[in-house]
Structures are given as structure tokens and as C-alpha cells.
């Protein structure tokens, strides 16, 4: 019924559109202006206003307690439920000549059911302007589906703070009745990376503009008025108006694309197939002149879209080749056919996140989708495989079944972040990519989850209200801790049980919404159908990981067999002020081995216990707990067992599984930071690296030594540390020289390729002459001949070291290459390497470039400044730059893509002196009035971190210095 009605309605609206187009130029003039002066606009109400009156202006007195009107709340009232939308949008890819603004015009109608009588229509709308008079309701058209009477709209107003359009009616909408609200509107097609926005690039010297969207989490309302909450699923009929010669894409298949004349312009009108029932944040609308490649796998049309030259160069081929197999993999994993008839994936030049799982039309950063044998590294390739797997995983988990509210975001993102490894493993089984979750997620998030400023995975629904609170949830806890605990869960349930529960969950809740406990319920049912034995219910076990922040350090005393747990805190002096419902105790699954032999798994269900089998009586037996780091916890041992493990490492390190060698290093360094074991014990775990050839332990060591570099690269420790590390890495460097036949071949294994990069990077960084000659020689060959001889895997490292050793000529050459790069992955390597110069004037000039979006894209500004700060010479320059420009940066970039927390953390990472601490405090004070936006927490964390660093250096500098001196003197 609804559908039939809507088709005819859509045709009707087509007529209105002509008029809207004529008006658009006039409206364009006022779009931005009216947004800016929102507080003075009769119908745009300021945050402190009660709103609702035609006479409401910014002079309305601010009240101390916000008025209790429904539009003062951030959540929609539960009175109206959308069923189906018709949306027509017309983005203009040329600026209006009079105003210079890019705009889009649109019209929408929404069919909704009234579920509770109300005389208000409250619908999300942000930065949209409505045509027609708002004060008398003339701008809106409201009708009743069954033809019964309908109240008229008395007035409408926009409520700025909560991003609502409010319509006051002169009577009630009635429970059980269906209504249709139609509106015409205009918005700015800004380059702000949110909602309906524009992206620009040059092709063959010509500037090109495309229109695209990023709705998640709360920007669908910036494209058209909608009930913009994930539980308000609906059907969408989308039409895009666009220039002849351009392609329009949306979630559904293109049904027809016809030439029409609107407002004297010959344009195309592309109608899309009605979507499935879905959430607004998963919508996508794109107009571009892109090319594409495609195939059909098992009845699903798979297409990859990108700039035409990128498609011609074959840069979409890899993505196309792996999408089919990954989709098939997930169909089996979920036991559910892919829910849509098509799967489009598109690379966007300006894109804030890495990728977005719009249902049927996934958007990517160019670096996350496009692969070129000649330019892309194995790391670029892995990122493409995992990110595609991540987004495809969402097609079911997240899109077909959607969490009811954003407080459960961790389950959506954590789940996709776990299974992305399974999907990528299917595409590239040789890589052993599943192991890498330990470095990229478990170890990564341990670092933040060990601070008192961490937070539990799960938030209360009522605590997550404002768009900024929702955005804050997209953090390492949701992604990496979510992934880590789900991996642990899948492991202790066993994969067949985990997938069985998952499959019945998806089946029960298809096209609807859930809370995270619904998944636990289905997993519990799966457990009960098997003989799996657990110490408690899935819910009770998982709650200890989900409802309290942090994780335990499990201590094994092999002299007695005592096993105990304690909340692990990186700073032992910090105080946990947040109480936990489980008193910071967890139900811990323990997989372990004793001297090469895997033992029966155990559970630690209380603070401490005794496991007799863990008692060691010989002088050579060792106990190793948390095999493959499947458990989300750190492990400490009695001194004797540490000694035996370290002896095993230096005698026959292969006796200890590779992932656990990486774990021993990471645990030791972090236990030392927490003062649980001495720092020299941590340093001892690096002694055996002379004999280590595997990637994961080396990477783990480098991640931890990074902190030593940051703390000591401006002090006398540095020289001795360099000597030691150069000694340690030289055999690895020589090994690669041999296996690559004097650097002429590529190592075969994926991880070996990664470790080759580590070998070169550390050897050059620590001043190994052979390494420096090698990389400078390659770079010079490139500059002299114009042909780049450097393998893509090594490019960043080689560029960085050569630029650091060179001067303006090298820098300018690289800058030119950056500007002319035909693939974003190459540009990214150059952009990062340009920050490696040691010339302050070049670094300062580069800093200036970051705020000029024609030189550095907005999406890349923050990371570029942070790259510069990572350079020991650039550190203070970047800090000065950010301090001096804070006001400008904040006002110019405050609303959009700038990641203030990354910026603040990035430029202060090295801080470890009293002077720096004072500067940081001053910075906080000086800019209190401007504010720090999403970087507010980061400022306080940076102050805390600086103090902790000062303390750490005071306590460790001398020991560490002596240790390095001794280690170099006594060869192992
Ligand atoms: N849903 C996210 C994209 C997103 C992130 C939207 C933040 C809004 C705010 C998407 O599924 C995602 O997680 N993308 C990741 C890549 C992934 C491989 C971790 C990203 O963008 O980094
Ligand atoms: Zn995701």
C-alpha cells in the first residue's frame, strides 16, 4: 500500500521541483548567511531559547534550566514512526556565479505512523533551509493517507542545538493513523566531509567536483529532514538529479536514468530501486563522472567506482577480485545470503574516516580501496583487504541487524573489527593476517585501557545523547577492545558455537534492532545446545569485560601454583575513582603451556586461586600463560619463571610461539612502566632479538622502544641506546641483504616483507652506515633518472631517511612528486616522509601548508602536523605552530574533520620536562575561552602524561643508561 502510493506521490513532486530549481539561486544567496545568523533568524532558534514562537529571537533570555519542551531534548519523542521516504536531491557541481557557493536543492516526503497522539511534528534537520514561509506553516505540506482530516501546520521553526525542525499543529495527529509530510529545502554542498558534501580533485589539469555523503552518525539530517535515529528504520525511494555526463549512485540499483529539462536545464533524473528497511545513517547519494568495473557473483552485482584514470590504470582490480570471495565467506559465516542485489564500492578523494558501510554503496578513502602493483606496499594491500572485509561484515552485522542506539556502538564496530581479520584471511590465506590482531588491536588498546581515564565498553543509553557524545564513542575502546573481547569470546565458546549463536541472532532480528544482550542470549542458547562447559553464563562472563573499564594482570607464581588477578594500571600511583560493579575482577579464561606442551585450559573466576599444575619444580621448566594472546589480559610471573622464560628465549626462542614472544616483550615493557617489574627486566627481553627474524616480536619491541626514543632522543641516553639497538638490528639487516640477494628481490612472506621494513628503518635510524648509503643511493637514482627504483614496501622508509639526510633539493623533489602522484597511497608515503627533514625552515613551511587545503587536503591536515611533531626537530616547531594558531585552527576547523584529540596528543607526546609541563598548562589557561572541542580530554590527558613521563625519566634514566652501556660492552 505504502509503496504504491509513494510512487505516484513521487511523480507529483517532480512538478514542484521545477519551481524549486528556479528558486535555488535566490536561496543559495541566503544559505550560508542564514546559517551564520541562525540565532537572529525568526525561525531558527538558539540553544538557550525555549523556541516555538514566531517572535522568538536571540534576545530571549537564557534560562538557567533548559525548558522541558520536547525539542529541547536530543532524542526524538516516541510519537511518530517513519515508514517510507521519497527523497529527490539535486547537487550543483558548479558554484553559483553570484555567491560562489555550491548548493543542493531537495524535496522530501515522509510517510509516517502516529503511535501516540500529538500536536507536534519533530523531525531532524541540520543546516537546511526551507522554501516557503515558516512562520505560518506554509512551507510544509501535511496530509493524511486515508483521506481523513488532518490538522494544519500553525508554524514551524528550526531548533539549532538539538538539530530539529519543529512543526506546531492546530490539532492532534491521531494514534494509528498514517500521514505524509512534504518539504522543499536547500543546503550547502560544502567541503566539510559531513552529510551531503563535495569533494574536489584535478584530472588532466582540470578541476573536478563530485557530490557524496557521510551520514554516520548524525548527518543524514544535514542532507534531508528525517527521523535520524538508528532504530527508526524505513524504506527509501531516492531520486537524484544530475548533469548529463555524470553518474548518480545510491543504496539501491539504478532503475532508470532519463533526460529531463528542469528550469531550462537539460539534466538527468536517476531513479533508484526502493531500499530495504534500513537506518538513515546508512544512506548514500553520490554524483560524479567516475568510471567503474564490475562482475556478477552468485547473482550479486559487484562494482568498484573510482576516478576514471584510476579505473583505467587497473587500481580497482584488486578490490573487485577480493570482494566476491569475502562476500561468499560472510554468507557462510553468517549463514545468510547477502541481503541486497548489488554491492557498490567507491573511492572518494576527500573522506574523513577510512571507509563507511552505507548499505549497498560503501564509500572509502582512496588509499583504502585502490591498489596498484607499482605503487602500493604490502601494508597498503593488507589495509584494503581488511577494510573491505570490515565494511562487508557490516552489511549483515550493523546494517541488516542494527543496534538500537549508539551506546551499543562498540558491539557494531568491535564485531566488524574482529571479523575483518577472518574475511581478509579468506582473501589472502598466505598472510596469517589473523595473528596481527594482537599487535593492531589487543596491544594497541591495552595502552589506553590501562589508564584511569579509560571507560567501559558499554555506555548507558541515557548518557549518550548529543552528536558529540556519539562521535566520541568511535574510539580505540569500541573498536579494538570490542574486537579483542569478541575474539576471546569466540575462542572460549569455540568457533562453531559462536557462529551458531551469531547466525540465530541475525535470523531473529533481520531488518530490525537489538541491544547487545540479545547477542549474548543467542550465544547462550548455542552453548546450551552443546556440551561446552563454562564457569558461568555468557552474560555473566562477558559483563565483567563489558561493564567495567580496564583489564587484569594475571600473576602466576610457579613456586606455589598461585594464580591471582589485579586491575592493571600503567601508572601505579593513579587512583581509580570510578567504582565497578565487579570490583575490577574478571572471569578470566586461561590457555597455557608448560615447556612446549599445551595444557588443559583453566578459568580464573575469583581474585586468586591455586592451580597445582602451574607449580614448577625443575630448574628448566617454564610456564607460559595466555597462549596466542587470546585472552584480554597481561601476565606476570615470579622471578624464577621470568628467568626461565628469558633463558628459553635466548637458547631456543622457537620453543615459545611467535605471538607469545611478542607478548613477552609487550607485557614486560608495560609491567615495567607500571613498576611491577624492573625496567631492566623489560630491556632484557630485547637481548634475544639478535637471533629473532620474525616480524611480530620485532614489531612489539619497536612499539615499546618508541617510548624510549620519545623520552631519550633529546638526552645523553640516546647515543648509547643507538649503539645497542644498532648492534641488535645489524644481523637482521644482514639477513635481509642475503635473502633479497643484495636488495634485488622481495622477501616471499607477507610478515617477512614487513620485517624487512623494520630492519631497514631501525638500521638507518640507529645510524648503520650501510643502511644509510643504501637508501640515499636509491633516492639519488630516482632524483637523477626520474625513474623510481624503490620497491613500494620500502618507499616510506627510504623516502623518510633520504629526506632526513638531504636538504631543500630532496625535499622539493619529494614535494613535487607528492603533488603529481597518480595514486593516493604514493602521495601518503611522500606526505609522511616530507615530515622527516631536519631543516627547521622546511618544517615550518610544511606546517604552513597544512592549513591550505589546496596543498594538503583537509582530511590529512591533522595527521601531517602530527607527523612533523614526531620528528625530534619538528616537535617544538609543531607545538609552537599549534599554540600560535589555536584560535584560527579551532574556529576554522572546529566543526569538521580536524581531530583535535589526535592533534593535542600528537604534538605533546614527547613532553617530559617541567618547562613543557608549564607550557602545556599555560596553553590550557590561555585558550580556555576558545575551547578545545573534542580535544578537551586530550589536554588533560597530556598534562597527566607529561607528569608521568617526568616521573618515569627521573626514576629510570640512570638505570637505563647504564644498562645500554653494559649491554654494548658484553656481547650476547
Ligand atoms: N562505520 C565506520 C565509519 C565511521 C567511523 C563513521 C567514524 C563515522 C565515524 C566504518 O565501518 C569503520 O569502522 N571504518 C574504519 C575502518 C575499519 C577497518 C576500522 C575507519 O574508518 O577507520
Ligand atoms: Zn566499522
From TrEMBL:
<dbReference type="Pfam" id="PF17900">
    <property type="entry name" value="Peptidase_M1_N"/>
</dbReference>
<keyword id="KW-0645">Protease</keyword>
<keyword id="KW-0812">Transmembrane</keyword>
<feature type="domain" description="Peptidase M1 membrane alanine aminopeptidase">
    <location>
        <begin position="318"/>
        <end position="545"/>
    </location>
</feature>
<feature type="region of interest" description="Disordered">
    <location>
        <begin position="39"/>
        <end position="72"/>
    </location>
</feature>
<comment type="subunit">
    <text>Homodimer.</text>
</comment>
<dbReference type="InterPro" id="IPR014782">
    <property type="entry name" value="Peptidase_M1_dom"/>
</dbReference>
<comment type="similarity">
    <text>Belongs to the peptidase M1 family.</text>
</comment>
<feature type="site" description="Transition state stabilizer">
    <location>
        <position position="479"/>
    </location>
</feature>
<keyword id="KW-0472">Membrane</keyword>
<dbReference type="GO" id="GO:0005737">
    <property type="term" value="C:cytoplasm"/>
</dbReference>
<dbReference type="GO" id="GO:0070006">
    <property type="term" value="F:metalloaminopeptidase activity"/>
</dbReference>
<dbReference type="GO" id="GO:0008270">
    <property type="term" value="F:zinc ion binding"/>
</dbReference>
<keyword id="KW-0862">Zinc</keyword>
<keyword id="KW-0031">Aminopeptidase</keyword>
<keyword id="KW-1003">Cell membrane</keyword>
<keyword id="KW-0735">Signal-anchor</keyword>
<keyword id="KW-0479">Metal-binding</keyword>
<keyword id="KW-1133">Transmembrane helix</keyword>
<dbReference type="InterPro" id="IPR045357">
    <property type="entry name" value="Aminopeptidase_N-like_N"/>
</dbReference>
<dbReference type="GO" id="GO:0005886">
    <property type="term" value="C:plasma membrane"/>
</dbReference>
<keyword id="KW-0482">Metalloprotease</keyword>
<dbReference type="GO" id="GO:0006508">
    <property type="term" value="P:proteolysis"/>
</dbReference>
<keyword id="KW-1015">Disulfide bond</keyword>
<dbReference type="Pfam" id="PF01433">
    <property type="entry name" value="Peptidase_M1"/>
</dbReference>
<keyword id="KW-0378">Hydrolase</keyword>
<feature type="active site" description="Proton acceptor">
    <location>
        <position position="391"/>
    </location>
</feature>
<dbReference type="InterPro" id="IPR027268">
    <property type="entry name" value="Peptidase_M4/M1_CTD_sf"/>
</dbReference>
<feature type="domain" description="Aminopeptidase N-like N-terminal">
    <location>
        <begin position="81"/>
        <end position="282"/>
    </location>
</feature>
<feature type="binding site">
    <location>
        <position position="390"/>
    </location>
    <ligand>
        <name>Zn(2+)</name>
    </ligand>
</feature>
<dbReference type="InterPro" id="IPR050344">
    <property type="entry name" value="Peptidase_M1_aminopeptidases"/>
</dbReference>
<dbReference type="GO" id="GO:0043171">
    <property type="term" value="P:peptide catabolic process"/>
</dbReference>
<dbReference type="InterPro" id="IPR024571">
    <property type="entry name" value="ERAP1-like_C_dom"/>
</dbReference>
<dbReference type="GO" id="GO:0005615">
    <property type="term" value="C:extracellular space"/>
</dbReference>
<feature type="transmembrane region" description="Helical">
    <location>
        <begin position="12"/>
        <end position="33"/>
    </location>
</feature>
<dbReference type="InterPro" id="IPR001930">
    <property type="entry name" value="Peptidase_M1"/>
</dbReference>
<dbReference type="InterPro" id="IPR034016">
    <property type="entry name" value="M1_APN-typ"/>
</dbReference>
<dbReference type="Pfam" id="PF11838">
    <property type="entry name" value="ERAP1_C"/>
</dbReference>
<protein>
    <recommendedName>
        <fullName>Aminopeptidase</fullName>
        <ecNumber>3.4.11.-</ecNumber>
    </recommendedName>
</protein>
<feature type="binding site">
    <location>
        <position position="413"/>
    </location>
    <ligand>
        <name>Zn(2+)</name>
    </ligand>
</feature>
<dbReference type="GO" id="GO:0042277">
    <property type="term" value="F:peptide binding"/>
</dbReference>
<keyword id="KW-0325">Glycoprotein</keyword>
Amino acid at each position: 500500500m505504502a509503496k504504491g502510493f509513494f510512487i505516484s506521490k513521487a511523480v507529483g513532486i517532480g512538478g514542484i521541483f521545477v519551481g524549486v530549481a528556479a528558486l535555488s539561486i535566490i536561496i543559495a544567496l541566503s544559505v550560508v548567511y542564514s546559517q551564520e545568523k541562525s540565532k537572529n533568524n525568526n525561525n531558527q532558534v538558539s540553544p538557550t531559547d525555549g523556541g516555538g514562537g514566531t517572535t522568538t529571537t536571540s534576545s530571549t533570555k537564557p534560562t538557567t534550566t533548559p525548558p522541558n519542551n520536547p525539542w529541547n531534548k536530543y532524542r526524538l519523542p516516541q510519537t511518530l514512526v517513519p515508514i517510507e521516504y521519497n527523497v529527490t536531491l539535486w547537487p550543483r557541481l558548479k558554484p553559483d556565479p553570484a555567491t560562489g557557493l555550491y548548493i543542493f536543492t531537495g524535496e522530501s516526503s515522509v510517510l509516517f505512523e502516529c503511535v501516540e497522539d500529538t500536536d507536534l511534528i519533530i523531525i531532524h534537520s541540520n543546516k537546511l533551509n526551507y522554501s516557503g514561509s515558516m512562520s505560518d506553516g506554509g512551507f510544509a505540506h501535511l496530509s493524511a493517507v486515508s483521506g481523513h482530516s488532518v490538522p494544519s501546520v500553525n508554524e514551524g521553526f528550526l531548533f539549532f542545538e538539538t538539530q530539529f525542525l519543529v512543526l506546531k499543529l492546530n490539532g492532534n495527529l491521531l494514534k494509528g493513523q498514517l500521514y505524509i509530510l512534504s518539504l522543499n529545502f536547500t543546503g550547502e554542498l560544502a567541503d566539510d566531509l559531513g552529510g551531503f558534501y563535495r569533494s574536489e580533485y584535478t584530472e588532466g589539469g582540470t578541476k573536478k567536483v563530485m557530490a557524496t555523503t557521510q551520514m554516520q552518525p548524525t548527518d543524514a539530517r544535514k542532507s534531508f529532514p528525517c527521523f535520524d535515529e538508528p532504530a527508526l528504520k524505513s524504506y527509501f525511494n531516492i531520486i537524484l538529479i544530475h548533469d548529463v555526463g555524470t553518474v548518480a549512485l545510491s543504496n539501491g540499483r539504478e532503475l532508470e536514468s532519463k533526460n529531463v529539462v528542469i528550469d531550462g536545464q537539460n539534466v538527468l533524473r536517476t531513479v533508484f530501486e526502493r531500499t530495504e528497511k534500513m537506518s538513515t545513517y546508512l544512506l548514500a547519494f553520490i554524483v560524479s563522472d567516475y568510471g567503474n568495473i564490475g562482475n556478477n557473483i552468485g547473482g550479486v552485482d559487484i562494482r568498484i567506482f573510482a576516478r576514471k584514470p584510476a579505473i583505467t590504470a587497473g587500481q580497482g582490480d584488486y578490490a573487485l577480485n577480493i570482494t566476491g570471495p569475502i562476500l561468499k565467506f560472510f554468507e557462510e559465516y553468517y549463514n545468510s545470503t547477502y541481503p541486497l542485489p548489488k554491492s557498490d564500492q567507491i573511492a572518494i578523494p576527500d573522506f574523513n574516516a577510512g571507509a563507511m558501510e552505507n548499505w549497498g554503496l560503501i564509500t572509502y578513502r582512496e588509499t583504502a580501496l585502490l591498489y596498484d602493483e607499482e605503487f602500493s606496499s604490502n601494508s597498503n594491500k593488507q589495509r584494503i583487504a581488511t577494510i573491505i572485509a570490515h565494511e562487508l561484515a557490516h552489511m549483515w552485522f550493523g546494517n541488516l541487524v542494527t543496534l538500537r542506539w549508539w551506546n551499543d556502538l562498540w558491539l557494531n564496530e568491535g564485531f566488524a573489527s574482529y571479523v575483518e581479520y577472518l574475511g581478509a584471511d579468506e582473501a589472502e590465506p598466505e598472510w596469517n593476517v589473523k595473528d596481527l590482531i594482537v599487535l593492531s588491536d589487543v596491544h594497541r588498546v591495552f595502552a589506553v585501557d590501562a589508564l584511569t581515564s579509560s571507560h567501559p565498553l558499554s555506555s548507558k543509553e541515557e548518557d549518550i545523547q548529543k552528536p558529540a557524545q556519539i562521535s566520541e564513542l568511535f574510539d580505540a575502546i569500541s573498536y579494538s577492545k570490542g574486537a579483542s573481547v569478541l575474539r576471546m569470546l569466540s575462542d572460549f565458546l569455540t568457533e562453531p558455537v559462536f557462529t551458531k549463536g551469531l547466525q540465530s541472532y541475525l535470523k531473529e532480528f533481520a531488518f530490525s534492532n537489538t541491544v547487545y544482550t540479545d547477542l549474548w542470549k543467542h550465544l547462550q542458547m548455542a552453548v546450551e545446545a552443546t556440551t561446552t562447559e563454562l564457569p558461568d553464563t555468557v552474560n555473566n562472563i562477558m559483563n565483567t569485560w563489558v561493564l567495567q573499564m580496564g583489564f587484569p594482570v594475571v600473576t602466576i607464581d610457579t613456586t606455589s601454583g598461585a594464580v591471582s588477578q589485579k586491575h592493571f594500571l600503567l601508572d601505579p600511583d593513579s587512583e581509580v575513582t570510578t567504582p565497578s560493579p565487579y570490583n575490577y575482577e574478571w572471569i578470566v579464561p586461561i590457555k597455557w603451556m608448560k615447556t612446549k606442551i599445551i595444557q588443559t585450559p583453566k578459568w580464573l573466576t575469583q581474585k586468586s586461586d591455586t592451580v597445582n599444575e602451574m607449580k614448577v619444580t625443575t630448574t628448566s621448566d617454564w610456564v607460559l600463560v595466555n597462549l596466542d594472546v587470546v585472552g584480554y589480559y597481561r601476565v606476570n610471573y615470579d622471578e624464577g619463571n621470568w628467568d626461565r622464560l628469558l633463558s628459553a628465549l635466548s637458547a631456543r626462542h622457537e620453543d615459545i610461539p611467535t605471538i607469545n614472544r611478542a607478548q613477552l616483550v609487550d607485557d614486560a615493557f608495560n609491567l615495567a612502566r607500571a613498576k611491577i617489574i624492573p625496567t631492566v627486566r623489560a630491556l632484557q627481553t630485547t637481548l634475544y632479538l639478535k637471533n629473532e627474524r620474525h616480524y611480530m616480536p620485532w614489531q612489539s619491541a619497536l612499539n615499546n622502544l618508541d617510548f624510549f626514543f620519545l623520552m631519550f632522543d633529546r638526552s645523553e641516553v640516546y647515543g648509547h641506546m643507538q649503539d645497542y639497538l644498532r648492534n641488535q638490528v645489524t644481523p637482521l639487516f644482514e639477513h635481509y641483504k642475503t635473502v633479497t640477494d643484495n636488495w634485488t628481490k622481495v622477501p616471499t612472506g607477507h610478515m617477512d616483507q614487513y620485517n624487512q621494513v623494520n630492519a631497514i628503518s631501525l638500521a638507518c635510524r640507529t645510524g648503520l652506515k650501510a643502511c644509510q648509503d643504501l637508501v640515499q643511493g636509491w633516492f639519488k637514482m630516482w632524483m637523477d633518472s626520474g625513474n623510481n627504483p624503490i620497491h613500494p614496501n620500502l618507499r616510506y622508509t627510504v623516502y623518510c631517511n633520504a629526506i632526513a639526510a638531504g636538504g631543500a633539493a630532496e625535499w622539493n623533489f619529494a614535494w613535487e612528486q607528492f603533488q603529481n602522484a597518480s595514486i593516493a597511497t604514493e602521495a601518503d608515503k611522500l606526505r609522511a616522509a616530507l615530515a622527516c627533514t631536519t631543516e627547521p625552515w622546511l618544517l615550518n613551511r610544511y606546517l604552513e601548508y597544512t592549513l591550505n587545503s589546496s596543498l594538503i587536503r583537509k582530511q590529512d591536515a591533522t595527521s601531517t602536523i602530527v607527523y612533523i611533531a614526531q620528528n625530534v626537530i619538528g616537535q617544538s616547531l609543531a607545538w609552537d605552530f599549534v599554540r600560535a594558531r589555536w584560535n584560527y585552527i579551532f574556529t576554522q576547523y572546529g566543526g569538521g574533520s580536524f581531530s583535535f584529540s589526535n592533534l593535542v596528543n600528537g604534538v605533546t607526546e614527547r613532553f617530559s620536562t617541567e618547562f613543557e609541563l608549564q607550557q602545556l598548562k599555560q596553553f590550557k589557561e590561555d585558550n580556555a575561552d576558545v575551547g578545545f572541542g573534542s580535544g578537551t580530554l586530550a589536554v588533560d590527558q597530556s598534562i597527566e602524561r607529561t607528569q608521568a613521563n617526568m616521573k618515569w625519566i627521573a626514576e629510570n634514566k640512570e638505570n637505563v643508561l647504564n644498562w645500554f652501556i653494559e649491554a654494548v660492552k658484553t656481547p650476547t
